[in-house]
């Protein structure tokens, strides 16, 4: 595909970036500030999400099911990301699945399907933000309870913390100039927190035998069916690993997006 010389000369679009700009037919100035590694660090928060659901792990399957369910979910997630990464290498647009639907669906229904997929993706992102805010609010309330035994978290106080955290995340949308710095700070906190969590557990947690970790199934959920509890144990790794398609939605902010975004995914 030929690239207009005017677009090629644009300071923000050189080589593959110019190609992306031409295909997208965009007239906006996109500031490409991310690469494969910066996006990877920013998206990777698996250990944080595992910590959030640790109390659940020991009621539905125990460490054994956490290990095996994580392996299964990881394989499935890798297959799904491989498929999306291939599409992203062709159409590196922030619309992600919505853009893919637009280009691949039959012409007669592509507008409707693209509209539908776009709303599903948006609702999923809203649910993700709300879920993270609620979990964070519950963690804050729990930490305060540990250090102040007289404090009993009420529903209204947890809800107010949830609202405050949600509003804080929305404010980032209106501070595009500072988003790269916020992303770097988030990456540092994520990696540092993950290391602190792992080291603390290795040093302070009571040790168990290998047979307990790999073969002991725990069911404290109240359900009689171990099979159903086993399925429930998949919630933790799914929660930890979902959202990796988020890289799609910042592809237009990545340098050499047709290669960097798929690699990061």
Q: What keyword list fits this structure?
A:
transmembrane transporter activity, single chain, 265 residues, AA/rel_permease1, transmembrane helix, 14 helices, mainly alpha, transmembrane
Question: Describe it for me?
Answer:
By secondary structure, the chain is an all-alpha fold. It has one domain (31-97, 128-264). Helices cover 67% and strands 2% of the residues. The chain is built from 14 helices and two strands; from the N terminus they run H-H-H-H-H-E-H-H-H-H-H-H-E-H-H-H. It has a two-stranded antiparallel ribbon with strand order 1-2. The longest helix has 38 residues, at 110-147. The chain is globular and about 55 Å long. The chain crosses the membrane at residues 112-136, 156-174, 181-203, 223-242. It is found in: Membrane. This is Amino acid permease/ SLC12A domain-containing protein. Keywords: Membrane, Transmembrane, Transmembrane helix, Transport. Pfam families: AA_permease_2.
Compact overview of the structure:
67% of the residues lie in helices and 2% in strands. With 265 residues, the protein is mainly alpha-helical.
Helical element count?
A: 14
Count of separate structural domains: 1
Q: Per DSSP, what share of the residues sits in E-state strands of 2 or more residues?
A: under 5%
Q: Report the biggest beta sheet as strand number plus sense, adding barrel if it closes.
A: 2 strands, antiparallel
Number of strands: 2
Helix content: 55-70%
Could you spell the SSE succession in H and E letters? HHHHHEHHHHHHEHHH
Determine the structural class based on helices, strands and strand pairing.
Answer: mainly alpha
Keywords: Membrane, Transmembrane, Transmembrane helix, Transport
GO molecular function: transmembrane transporter activity
Main location: membrane
InterPro entries: AA/rel_permease1
